[in-house]
Amino acid sequence: xxxxxxxxxxxxxxxxxxxxxxxxxxxxxxxxxxxxxxxxxxxxxxxxxxxxxxxxxxxxxxxxxxxxxxxxxxxxxxxxxxxxxxxxxxxxxxxxxxxxxxxxxxxxxxxxxxxxxxxxxxxxxxxxxxxxxxxxxxxxxxxxxxxxxxxxxxxxxxxxxxxxxxxxxxxxxxxxxxxxxxxxxxxxxxxxxxxxxxxxxxxxxxxxxxxxxxxxxxxxxxxxxxxxxxxxxxxxxxxxxxxxxxxxxxxxxxxxxxxxxxxxxxxxxxxxxxxxxxxxxxxxxxxxxxxxxxxxxxxxxxxxxxxxxxxxxxxxxxxxxxxxxxxxxxxxxxxxxxxxxxxxxxxxxxxxxxxxxxxxxxxxxxxxxxxxxxxxxxxxxxxxxxxxxxxxxxxxxxxx
Amino acid sequence: xxxxxxxxxxxxxxxxxxxxxxxxxxxxxxxxxxxxxxxxxxxxxxxxxxxxxxxxxxxxxxxxxxxxxxxxxxxxxxxxxxxxxxxxxxxxxxxxxxxxxxxxxxxxxxxxxxxxxxxxxxxxxxxxxxxxxxxxxxxxxxxxxxxxxxxxxxxxxxxxxxxxxxxxxxxxxxxxxxxxxxxxxxxxxxxxxxxxxxxxxxxxxxxxxxxxxxxxxxxxxxxxxxxxxxxxxxxxxxxxxxxxxxxxxxxxxxxxxxxxxxxxxxxxxxxxxxxxxxxxxxxxxxxxxxxxxxxxxxxxxxxxxxxxxxxxxxxxxxxxxxxxxxxxxxxxxxxxxxxxxxxxxxxxxxxxxxxxxxxxxxxxxxxxxxxxxxxxxxxxxxxxxxxxxxxxxxxxxxxxxxxxxxxx
Lengths: 400, 408
Prior knowledge:
heterodimer, A: alpha/beta, Aspartate Aminotransferase, domain 1, Aspartate Aminotransferase, domain 2, 7-stranded mixed sheet, 3-stranded antiparallel sheet, 12 helices, 41% helix, B: alpha/beta, globular, metal ion binding (chain A), iron-sulfur (chain A), pyridoxal phosphate (chain A), metal-binding (chain A)
């Protein structure tokens, strides 16, 4: 491959679907009437209200169906972050009299980690479980961490940065055996891999709309019947008293439609994405020396590629890729502005300097084999050039 | 239901087939998004789908959209753009104003002052706090719903963390003297409590100046001003220490985590721009309509009792009457049959058959509270719609009259 394969960015290849996804045309079409004639407040008694209410309830069924839940167990929120906050804070305070211990992992999304930190300040004790070098949580570790004071376990389903799929079925079984409430953040996995809240023994599950081609600003929390929550937003009696605020009707309708389509297309699409994913991973590892796959090689979200490329700064790769029309990320979008290396990679035991060279490419509906081949064509020369310029690169050369 | 192509909306007109048109008089519950709002959102939903936190060009385009909207919101209340934090709506903003204040002030500030006529998102929150050991003073209102600024000042103690007073009462439209309350609180010097204003029912339409009025926190909502549902904002005065309500990725300068609702925020920005252009003119037109509506209702039913102020210090888009002897709900349904859509109080509580605590707080009887109807207009309401409403009300009351007589 030539080092001079720079092209004008006529191509636009979006490889950041874990950050957010475009709204599907079908989803937008479903939403538009609710910005127009059907603009009612779902709490109003008159027909505008009833019409909005019906739309919300229909969407609730679609969301429930995606995760094999009962519609009455779905609470709409403003997104994944609010759902995580509501699950953790809501359960912690509802079960405070039973105990004050929470088990989670070091590689959770910040919506979980920072909420746990806030709970520590309020007198709760939190165990942050380590993971192995693939980013996998060991159910045995969960079991060992359980004490008589444990009221809640929160372990994510699909890891958002490295794509590892956690054994939440086993952890759910453990939690059930010990009578502990189990929450899982499924923001990255819902719609990508099958989820069955009953088979997995999950009591609370977080889902987000904008990761599955629905609109931003809406998400849901599955709350198993009988699980108590202290509401985090109080006011009107919306969402069974668990979440006050006028329902975001168009957003909820779009979310429902996105769930319906995701459920329908899941078997085919996850197969297609897995194949693209493996092609990209194999290509990078083959073409770029000193590159490493982060995350589990097989127990992996079908759309996630995360590699560390030694002796290169992740940010520099991103900017160079962006110039060539490729949108990727160095980790999670929420923290991509910070220069700190990923807490997830560090927890996996990846050394600082290797963590700095991480590149996350997350695939989606629009991506084709040609996109993958384009990335495999432009990335190696970028890496080569950056390595030539960098101090790390010179160090590497003198070593070899 | 396509016959209602133009209800209370910009593209009004008689529906196809010559059927009676539908009149939406429930704009304090929610409003129809303005065409410019829908257009702004559609563009973002179709083209600018990036996550503002992403470093690539889609991300930077989205963060620019958010920043522009922030400026539009700020300019309507005399704030700086850095003082606007987007939320999922007015309820979240109200919850956060209270919880965020308490979380940042420490254990000695355990007293909250608010009024007896606040929105449920304030009421339910302070009740929850009272159950958790906080001390709450509810300042009463007079017969027109006005809070007395002197009484507010007298309720303030050394341990008062927060004074929270709404700008416009959502059921009866009373405009509270927030400016005066802010001035009095400012006179207490640096150890004064924080002043929060729930401005959801006044924001965008009424004159607000957070700096001149001495306001520390102000709640706003988009869907009451022809913006989208699911988005609102809290003004947080620069330098004010605030704990977050929602923890996570650190968006909104660490104050409100969660991927920004970019299309919603763009829609809110577009709504603010629209109001910024013609606010004064629209309010003038509404004041005329409000007067006509009040006269019409009184003519239709002389025993009707107006709640809230007659003409001064009242939001010119809210008209609230009791029809003693009737049930508010029956009137609502009779009006709906005639194509006019109103509410018996606030939408949030409209499914409850309980008398409105707001009307009771005015010193009115339960009978009056149960027979109440709120008409709320929008910038698109026309004189013709007001006339249709009055006519429908006349017919509705006539229809319900035998039932009323028999009940007596």
